[in-house]
Design goal:
Elements lengths: L1 H23 L5 H32 L3 H44 L4 H25 L3 H23 L3
Helix pairs in contact: 1-2, 2-3, 2-5, 3-4, 4-5
The chain binds protoporphyrin IX containing FE (HEM) (2 copies).
The site of one protoporphyrin IX containing FE (HEM) has 26 residues, from helix 2, helix 3, helix 4 and helix 5.
Length: 166
């Protein structure tokens, strides 16, 4: 049951963001379109990473042996990409940030809600990376929880940032 909700939410997030960005937030300026493209790719990659939480959760909770084995194999493979994905998408986001600071900031003002939520999400991205690094070095109960919670807060924040009007 829960895995169905989880799949639907993922599809909604990905298709929804594609529709929202490309149909509802059109821009003429090439650089700004590139910044949107960078953010679009990065947010999909971040969503892949956040999904690890649900995969580990289902592995822990399911009674079905077959599901456990299949997801455990999948997660072992996918975790090889986890750090690479987070670093690549952070680099994409840095491009997104620089373009917006230079091109959009002066037009809408640096205190615009879109900008403020952008700074906030970026700070939480850095905290999540740091927490991930700590967890990678030595996984204590606190560090696991810290990485999990910062990742969730970061996800909520960047979704609010994405949806915030200019
Ligand atoms: C200092 C940090 C940031 C600033 C100043 C910033 C600024 C902006 C601005 C001005 C837009 C609107 C562009 C437009 O009208 O198309 C935008 C869109 C977007 N940003 Fe950010 N951003 C920041 C960080 C982030 C982060 C960390 C993410 C995480 C994934 C992100 C994801 C997105 C997405 C998905 C959009 C597309 C939605 C839209 O076009 O309105 N941004 N950002
Ligand atoms: C912004 C990027 C990132 C996001 C959104 C993210 C998200 C997540 C989530 C949701 C989990 C599952 C947590 C759980 O259920 O306990 C996880 C696990 C993990 N993450 Fe990240 N993470 C990010 C970056 C990183 C980085 C940069 C590192 C390391 C340098 C890292 C290392 C780990 C490790 C070692 C695990 C545990 C895997 C396991 O238990 O086998 N993460 N991450």
């Amino acid at each position: 049951m829960y895995h169905r909700i989880w799949s639907v939410v993922n599809v909604l997030l990905i298709i929804g963001s594609i529709i929202y960005i490309w149909l509802f937030r059109p821009h003429d300026n090439t650089l700004i379109v590139i910044s949107q493209f960078l953010a679009q790719i990065a947010m999909i990659l971040f969503i892949f990473n956040v999904n690890m939480y649900f995969i580990f959760l289902i592995i822990r909770k399911t009674n079905k042996r077959e599901v456990k084995i299949r997801l455990a194999t999948f997660s072992r493979y996918f975790m090889k990409w986890h750090i690479k994905i987070s670093i690549s998408s952070t680099i994409l986001i840095v491009g997104h940030v620089l373009i917006n600071l230079v091109k959009i900031g002066p037009v809408i003002g640096y205190e615009n809600i879109k900008m403020l939520m952008g700074y906030t999400s970026f700070v939480f991205l850095l905290v999540t990376l740091f927490a991930g690094y700590l967890r990678h070095k030595k996984a204590t109960g606190f560090r696991k929880k810290f990485h999990r919670i910062t990742a969730m807060i970061f996800t909520v924040l960047f979704l609010i940032h994405m949806l915030a009007p200019i």
